[in-house]
Amino acid sequence: xxxxxxxxxxxxxxxxxxxxxxxxxxxxxxxxxxxxxxxxxxxxxxxxxxxxxxxxxxxxxxxxxxxxxxxxxxxxxxxxxxxxxxxxxxxxxxxxxxxxxxxxxxxxxxxxxxxxxxxxxxxxxxxxxxxxxxxxxxxxxxxxxxxxxxxxxxxxxxxxxxxxxxxxxxxxxxxxxxxxxxxxxxxxxxxxxxxxxxxxxxxxxxxxxxxxxxxxxxxxxxxxxxxxxxxxxxxxxxxxxxxxxxxxxxxxxxxxxxxxxxxxxxxxxxxxxxxxxxxxxxxxxxxxxxxxxxxxxxxxxxxxxxxxxxxxxxxxxxxxxxxxxxxxxxxxxxxxxxxxxxxxxxxxxxxxxxxxxxxxxxxxxxxxxxxxxxxxxxxxxxxxxxxxxx
Length: 390
Description:
With 390 residues, the protein is α+β, with helices and mostly antiparallel strands. The protein has 11 helices and 17 strands. The chain has helices spanning 19-26, 31-37, 51-64, 88-95, 113-127, 198-220, 237-250, 257-274, 281-292, 330-338, 345-353; strands at 3-11, 15-18, 41-43, 71-77, 103-107, 132-141, 154-164, 169-179, 185-186, 195-196, 229-232, 301-308, 312-320, 341-342, 363-364, 373-379, 382-387.
C-alpha cells in the first residue's frame, strides 16, 4: 500500500519584519542576516493569532475543498502549546467543523514532532485503509529581543492530508532515527522565549543527521545520487546548506555551488522570508519545493531530514507522484506572501512585548489582519476563537 501526502497547504502571519530594519536597530551589518544565516524576513503573529489560528488557517483550503470529510485522525504538532491539558488540535477540529468521529492528539518533541505526526498518521492509514488523517504542524519561534536567535524568529503552519495513493508524495517505509538526551535548545514552562546553545545545537543537528543517514543507507542501500532534491529542517536557511555540505563531505561526495543550488534552493525560498516555523519548517520547505521549482519532479525521490532539539533526528524519503502540480496551492501561497504588511521597529517591539493575560479575567482582543480565524479573547481562563468566514 502506498501512503503519503495527498495535499499540503501552508500559512503564515500577515505581518513581517524585514531583517534590514532589524540590522539597523541592532547596529549590525545586514549581511550578517541576509548572507550569514540566509534570512531576509521573519513572520510576526499579532496578538489575535496563535498556533491554533495558524494551524486552522493552514488547513482551511482543505476544508473549503471538501477534503476533510473522511478524516478520522488529527495530529497537531507544536512546541508552542497553549494549554497543559487540552490539545490545540481540538480547537482546530471545532473551527474546521470536522465530523465528531475523530481522534485528536497533540504531539511535542521540539521541531521533530511534525515528522512524528506524519509517521503516526501513515501507521493509522495502514491499519485503516480508506481512511484519512490530517497532520498540522504549527509554531511561533520566539527569542529574547537582542539575543543571538532574534533574527531567526518566525511563525507559520503546514496542514497535510495523509492518505493512501496520495496525489503529491508517497512516503517510503524505510527511515533512520537517532535520539540523544542533550540540552541544546529548550523552553521551560515558566518562559515564553526559548533558550538555545547555538553552536552546540548546530553540532548536534549535524551529528544526528550523519547517524540517521547511516541507518537509512544501511536499510536501503541507497546513496546520495539516488535523490533529486533534499528537504531539511530549516531553523535558518544556511543551516540546511551547511548540513548537506557536511553530509557530502562525510560520504566523500564532491558538490559544487551549482549542484547545491539544484538540490536545495527551491526548498528554502519560503523559509527565507517567513523565518523558522519549528515543527512545520521542513514541510514549509516541501511546500516551497513543490510550488516553486520549474523542473518536473514527477517520479523523483526527495530526501527528508527532520530534527528536533533535545534531540531526535530522522532521515527518510518520498517519491513525487505524476500530475502532482494539479493538486498544489501554489498560487494561494504566493498571493498570501505577496500581500503581507511590513512592521516598523516600534510596531514589532510593541507586539513582541504584548503578553496574553493570565489572570483569567474578561478580555477582548483588537482585530488585526489574520487568516480565516482569530484568537478573539479570554473569558474565565478559557481561550475564545472566532471564524471570519461567516
